[in-house]
Amino acid sequence: MQATAEDVLAFLKDKGLVLSTAESCTSGLIASALADVSGAGACLDRAFVTYSVEAKIEMLGVCRDTIERCNLTSEAVAREMALGALAASRADVTVANTGVVDSTDDEIPAGTQCLAWAFRQAGDQPAIFSETVRFDGDRRALREQCVRYALTQLPVYYRRMAGGTD
To answer: Which residue range forms the structural domain that includes residue 52?
Structure first.
């Protein structure tokens, strides 16, 4: 089942959670999808649009070494983005994405997206989950699919973090 922005906001409100995003390829579309829903301000703290390498490093504290070792399109970078957004906000949960929407000469196919979800936990290190997915379509379709997927997986990973089942 795909969650809508309304579903995710209802989930966040029900759990008393505040969300921040760290977006590369989606360029703020995750936050924008939520902001389109009345009452989003109760659950949406901020969105970091970090399209460039320098923005990821400067705004979110992504390590240049991680980018060089793992590639910009990697779960390692997405995880550091999610943790950086968590550290730089009042959010309880963050979602981050980085990926490729255009065909390039690289070994990473267009449509590849790396996502991460980080959850603040009392007295503990944040819980973090990540995955790599591949979508098909043009730039717009790829970005929209990534937004829907990021929102759909947020409650799934919350339940996993809380010890429940999917």
So the answer is: 5-161
The per-residue pLDDT for 162 is: 87
* Close Cβ partners of 92 (under 8 Å, ≥ 6 residues apart): 16, 17, 18, 19, 119, 120
37 within some domain: yes
Domain of 80, CATH number, reads: 3.90.950.20
From the first residue on, what is the mean pLDDT of each consecutive set of 10 residues in the chain (166 residues)? 85 97 96 95 97 96 97 97 97 96 78 97 90 95 96 96 73
pLDDT of residue 2: 67
Q: Is 141 contained in some domain? A: yes
Q: Which amino acid is at 145?
A: Q
DSSP, collapsed to helix, strand or coil, labels residue 136 as: coil
Q: How many domains does the chain have?
A: 1
Structure tokens at 138: 């043009």
CA dihedral 82, 83, 88, 94 (to 10 degrees): 40
State the virtual CA torsion across 61, 63, 64, 65 in degrees, nearest 10: 180
Tell me if 166 is assigned to some domain. Answer: no
Whether this prediction's pTM lies above 0.70 is answered by yes
Taking the C-alpha atoms of residue 123 and residue 112, their distance in angstroms, rounded to an integer, is 34
Establish if 100 belongs to a structural domain: yes
